[in-house]
Amino acid sequence: MKKSARKKRMARKILLILCIMLAVYIVYLFCKAMWYGRGTSEARTAPGRIELSYEEAAADGSISFEEIAVHYAPEVHAAVNVLISESGKGDFISAVDFDGDTSAVNNWENMASYPLKAYVYWSVQETDTHYFIGYYFYHPRDDAEIWLDRHENDFEGIMLAVPKAENGFAPPVCMYTQGHGGVPFYGDNMTMTEKSIRGGPLALDGDRAVIYITPNGTLNNAGHSIESDAGHSTYWSVGNSGIRYYHGGEAQVPATFKGDYNDNPCSYALLPLKDLWIRRNGPYGEGGVFAGFGAFHGDNYRKNAANPAWGWRNKTVYGFGGSFLSDPAWTFSRAVEEYSFSCDYLANEYADWKVSVRSVSGADQAFTLRLWQDAWQIAADEWWSFERTESGEYTVRICDADRQSIWAAAPPNTVWKCEAVDTEGNIMENAVVDWEAEFLDQ
After folding, report:
1. CA dist., res. 205 & res. 248, Å (int)
2. Which residue(s) pair with 369 in the sheet?
3. How many Å apart are CA 88 and CA 92, to the nearest integer?
4. What structural domains and CATH numbers belong to the chain?
5. 10-residue block means of pLDDT along the chain (442 residues)?
6. For residues 175 and 159, is the Cβ–Cβ distance under 8 A?
């Protein structure tokens, strides 16, 4: 009996100690949430937002893509979760090589020891009718309370569709964003095609998009997904912590992130996405940014789990690997009905291949097409429309009436295949598909 009583007393003591330890930890988290991120008393000069007018940009007789990226550089409201990832530091935006080396496999560890100066990557592509302007946001950690949701490196982005105008800059008409493969579209009075997602209105400050980046965490709307700031989703942002990043041309480290975004401004500088794009084909592995085409090199929690823009596989019926970046005219035109986007690019340095499908002959029964990138079928049946000519040949269109090509990001050794199949999926031996996969070598 005495031994049993001693065991019970010991168990109660252990339980009491555990309760005290839990209470101390809860108090610690509360204090951390309430006090961390108040900033320092050290004063610093805050540069003003860079304003570049059309007249200033055109003063030398032409307007560069970099000047376009400067004019439309977005305002970013980034929420901060101060309970995880070095007390919120994992929600800062920065450059991939923030630690001074070209290796991405040590970025999770190095985040704690290096200042995360604010950088935003940009890209611009051009057709006859529009500029497509992308901005991309890198974080060393996609962190969460649950370890299954964690991985090293994180890369999300937005794409703006801007009509070309004579003697001026036009405001964006539409934006799509990336978050965990989902691609919602933002704009006013849009009619969406079937299975495309309307995210809501597009928030603008002049010609600049105003966006919201969710913080690290485990909720559905966490993990640095991007939304329009107009009516964005709510998040349990501990201590109401956030940063207002703006383009001031200077890459600053946030001085504070406690309280309202507007009380915590931080200037960012722009970097061309081409700095990363030129490394897409290697060298891979140790000492490199990428582990393979379309995958950052990372080894924390989930191996090589983060993707650059050309590795995003959009979760839409009309999307294909990397089309967020490689073919924005396609991505917009397939989702939004009332906007007309030219299909032919005057400039597109973020595509490796132009794949064209022109006609099918010798098809004596109902058919569709299969388009393969290596062992991956990238085309859905909804892509194709066929018009029979007097000769019995079928002219092929890829969704749009004037489109017979897509622009894709893929390695130079990619094997493409296009074949006609019957309604049961069997290859039609007598059918001849006139098609071409052209490597652009750029």
Report:
1. 15
2. 420
3. 8
4. 54-335 (no CATH), 352-439 (2.60.40)
5. 62 65 50 46 73 96 97 96 90 97 96 97 97 98 89 96 94 90 88 87 97 87 89 66 95 91 94 98 92 96 95 78 93 87 93 97 94 92 93 93 93 97 94 97 82
6. yes
